[in-house]
Amino acid sequence: MAFQILNNLKILSTACLFKMIMGANVSPLQWRMLVVLVLGSIMSQMGGCTNNEMSIRGSTLGYTMKFLNVILTAVATVYNEKFMKSNDNSIHFQNLQLYSFGFFFGVGACVHHFESDFFSLELLTKGWSWSVLALTLNYAFAGIATSAVLKYLDNMTKTFSSNVSMFVVAIISIIFYHEQPTPHLFIGMFVAAIAIETYNSQGFSKPQPTNPSIFPSPVGKEKWEKV
Predict the structure, then answer these.
(1) What is the maximum span of the chain, computed from C-alpha positions, in angstroms?
(2) What's the distance, CA 53 to chain centroid?
(3) pTM of the prediction?
(4) What is the spatial distance between Cα 68 and Cα 220, in angstroms, rounded to a whole number?
């Protein structure tokens, strides 16, 4: 339960940093709806908790690491949005810049772990199947879609999408894997839906750029002002 609560705090931490770094305007009602969204998400995930699991337990180090994870994840996503919107470079070139760091760190870790065996063709092709290939392509397209959301929309849209996907996965699991639905899931979905709808009814409070010309032609100055 403690993990679920702390994990859903990413919604609030992202909103706080979105306001601080990007200068977005968030109304008091929207702040309240974000809190309601966090509570609804937590409620939906409590269905599998037994009576013994409802208590908050864990080490100080564990709580500290998870709290840092929540903050660093929010910082990374907001900074990525700032980077994507800071110039008019192609989104594909910006993706190349962002993912190159992960690529080099991943290669370095593999070389350190496998040493000379890393460069063998057998190791590089081991374990691949059509399912693994499909999963890899899915992650690649998800990364491109996320970059597009950050460049042309904002972090709150990404946060809401991630939150909704949690409920979509739950419904798919019920239909195809015959998992037993719980009242917590449906109550959480209902509360989260109300929170998202109420937040969006206030209008998307996009950050106001100091220089609207930095945005690429699809969202130029005139279109930005109309959004």
Answers:
(1) 58
(2) 26
(3) 0.72
(4) 36
